[in-house]
Structures are given as C-alpha cells and as structure tokens.
Amino acid sequence: MPLALYDTWSRTLRAFTPIQADHVGLYCCGPTVYDHAHIGNLRTYVFEDVLRRVLALNGYAVRHVVNITDVGHLVSDADEGEDKMEKGSRRTGESAWEIAKRYTAAFMSDWHALNLLEPSVWCRATDHIAEQIDFIDELERNGYTYRTADGVYFDTSKQDDYGFLARLDVAGLQAGKRIAIGEKQRATDFALWKFSPPGTNRQMEWDSPWGRGFPGWHIECSAMSAKYLGPWFDIHCGGEDHIAVHHSNEIAQTQARHGTRLANFWMHGHFLTLDAGKMSKSGGDFVRLQTLIERGIDPLAYRYLCLSAHYRSTLRFSPEALDAAQSALDRLRRTYVQWPEGGMPNLNVVARFKAEVDQDLNLPRALAVLWEVVRSDLPPAVRRATVDHFDAVLGLRLTEWKESTVAIPADIALLGNAREKARALKQWSEADRLRGVLNAAGWHVEDSVSGQVLRPLDTAK
Ligand code: AMP
Ligand code: ZN
Fold this sequence. Notes:
Layout: E1 4-7, E2 12-15, E3 23-28, H1 39-57, E4 61-68, H2 84-92, H3 96-113, E5 121-124, H4 129-141, E6 145-147, E7 151-154, H5 170-176, E8 190-195, E9 213-215, H6 217-229, E10 232-239, H7 243-258, E11 262-269, E12 272-274, E13 277-278, H8 289-294, H9 299-307, E14 315-316, H10 319-336, H11 347-358, H12 363-375, H13 380-394, H14 410-424, H15 428-440, E15 443-448, E16 451-456
Helix pairs in contact: 1-9, 2-3, 4-6, 6-7, 9-10, 11-12, 12-13, 14-15
This protein binds adenosine monophosphate and zinc ion.
Adenosine monophosphate (AMP) binds at residues 29, 31-32, 40-41, 43-44, 238-239, 241-242, 269, 271-272, 278-281.
C-alpha cells in the first residue's frame, strides 16, 4: 500500500508521490524566538519529525527546511501592536538580538533532547531580509499591494480564492469587521512591510524601497521556502493554528508572485491542550520541556506521549498521562536491553508496522504493533532487530539507553528545583550550597542554555 497523507488543502487523504522522483521538499514553520518553546509547540515538531522519518522509510531523500522567526511577528493577527521580539526585549531588559540568540539556543537544546533529526537548512528571517524585500517588490510590480501610513499591505481582494486553505468566509469577515483593522482596507489584508514608527528607533530595522522598517511575519516563509525548495515543493507543515492566517497568507503571496500554492500537500498538527484550554506562548502560562526534565521526566517520555496520540487529534496534557508514558518507555527499555543483538527482523511484522505509519502516520496503531512484538514469543534476538527497525521511525534511541540514565529520584529533583529557584532569584550562595548537597548525593549539576541538567556523577562527562 502506498503512503497516504492527509492534505488540508483538499481535506482528503491522498496517496503521496513526490514532485521529483525520490526527492521530497519539506518546509516546516519554526519557532518565534521571543520566548521559550512550550511542549505544545514541541508536539508539532515531533509530528513533523515522524513525517520526515516515515518519508525516509519510504525511500525518499528529504530536504527539510525550518525557519526561525526572529523579527516581524506582531502581537496581534490584525497587524497591530508591537513586534514580539521588541516586546520580549522590554520584558527582560536584553536587546532583541540577544533575546533571539538565547531563545534560539534554548530551542535547539529542546530539539536535540527530543531526538528530532537535524533539518537540512535552518534559516533565520533576519538573514533573509533582501529576499523578503525582493519578494514584496515583485508583489508590488504585479499589482497586489497598497501603502498606508504605517506600511505596505497585501491586497487580498485581488484573489478570488484567497483563504481557500481555511475555507475562509472572507465576505463574512469583512462584513463583521469585529477585529480592529487599523489602516487596512479589508480584515483579511496583511502587512508585508511595516515602517518604523516616526521618531523611534527600533532595535531591528532595515532600509527598503518603501522606507525604514521591518518585514511582516508571513513573507519570510514564502521567501525562504522559495529560496531553499523552489516555489512548488512537496509538503508544508505547521500547527493547526496556522491554517487560517499564516498559511493562507503564505499561499496568497506565493500565488501572486509565482502562480503556485507553494506545496502539493499541506499538513497540520493538532494542538496539545491543558485542562484550562490551549497552551499558548502569549498566554504566558505554559509548560517547558526543561520543567519536565527537572521533575525527573525523560524528554523522550514526552516524545513517547506525543506518539501515543494521532497527530490529527487533540492531545490533552496531564501529569498522569506523562507518567504513564514514562512508565511505558521505561518498561520498553528494560525489556529491550535484555534482548541479544545479531537477529534478523521479522519481515511480516515490519510490514504491518509500515502499513500503519503509511496510513497518515498512525503512530498509536504502530505502537500497538510494537507492544505485540514485545510480548510475543518471537526469539529475543528477532524481537530486538524488529524493534530496531521501528525505532528508525519512533526515535526513542533504544540502542543508546543505559539504566543509569533513567530517572532522577524525587528528592534529587526537589533539590534541583530549589537550586533553579535560587538562581532565578540571584541567590548565588544558596544555589552553590544546593549544588554541594546534590554533588554529595552523587549528582552532577550542569547549567545549560535552557536551564539546569542533572546527571548521576558516574555518567556525567
Ligand atoms: P510559534 O513559535 O508560536 O510560532 O509556534 C511554533 C509551532 O508550534 C507552530 O507550528 C504552531 O502552529 C505550533 N503550536 C503553537 N501552539 C501549539 C499547541 N498548543 N500545540 C501544538 N502545536 C502548537
Ligand atoms: Zn511559516
């Protein structure tokens, strides 16, 4: 059976064939680095990583591009308010450039902790200002833009099918006009370039044919995806919140410049939610991967939790669900290490696993096949070789696991938390004292960019 993927554009499951034989172009919208990523954001990257691994399982070479939004993402979708980077700068007292650097580094550390494969290209918006200006320039020449006192806008009335991806009711939005639209002519129009406010100096601003300012958020993805993958490539991904605005606008821009809808498949991961509702950066109330690590949870247990829900269903986060994922992973690891190497995989089971992941990445069912193998009476060496095959998709690093890296005991985690708090309050001598207590208890403390990491002294490097 061929690989079938759900395409948001057509709202159907479609058989996947690449535009160029054996080669797949994959673009994934990356983080806005004005704050830490939360575990909801990371769920989307886990889904994209699994997609990439399933494409590889099908024999495709994947060119995977991920952007880093370090400028131009405004606080409101109505193109009003501050740039999130400048706002973050006001919050922390660091420069916008320092903020971008710090949160990018923290993001990379989460990325690696979750065993996400390194993209072929990481691209930063601030490194591609010239490409974005060229793009806007071409849109202007093609007659898709207008200027206001505060910027250059995309005129969505020029496209009859604007918003098709989201099945947007454009007329209804315009008639309702419940959102503030400032100087825009229509609710759906969006900023391509914003002018620096007169009399103020922004930390991040550039000269352009229209005046000094900064790019709108959507243009970076149209410009950078075209640069690295061409204007018509295979798959574009992101979280479900991007369908209505960000991806609709990326498509509008690319259609206006290149005449394509960017990608042959549009795929969207559904949200991780809390009891209180969706987890969002702007809400401020969110859980970081590092917080879980400090509570003694292995980041790969969070990865396991993500695998246990289909990417197109909402995953409700709870400490109990996470503990269950940690227990399942521990059980899997402890069983796996007892199996000898040197066997051959059971091809029948390997094919069943592949059939599940090929059916729009049905990881919950693929995990069920895994547990069947664990509990089966297949020879242990065969079970190991079969599960190794699965782990190329699951990414749980089973072969690398050692017992001593399993879990941080609760009392050690509490000491670690106390030390983190002391550091946050700049109580350095208390933080040093707690480091001494942790060392005496056999734990090494390392302060990484994304926070503190605890390791047993015998495994600490
Ligand atoms: P951001 O850094 O806010 O631009 O978001 C990075 C990625 O995370 C995007 O693909 C978003 O669609 C996605 N995302 C945002 N919130 C959530 C959530 N609660 N659950 C899953 N994905 C999310
Ligand atoms: Zn994007």
